[in-house]
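Hey, can you fold this one?
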Amino acid sequence: MQRTSVLMAGLTSLLLGCSLGGGDGEITDASCGADELSGTVGERIQDLAAASFTAEVTRFINPGDAVTSDIRPERLNIVLDAEGRVVEVYCG
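Sure. Predicted structure:
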């Protein structure tokens, strides 16, 4: 039983280190390109359909969506309101 606890603690530490991306773990809006999209707040997502997102991973978050709390600096998060307008863009 104790061996399993030690193994789980080690795996958890390893996974946390990977999820923070190493270094000091600080995430900026430049980490995923969110800084380049800050001007899209208030625009309809349909109007941005032809836009190219430079992020490795892009996640669209609609009202009421369940969102994981894992931290991925390379992931661009685009939060939308009920009308499909961009409310916020951020990395993580």
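The longest strand covers residues 75-80. Let me know if you want another pass with a different chain boundary.
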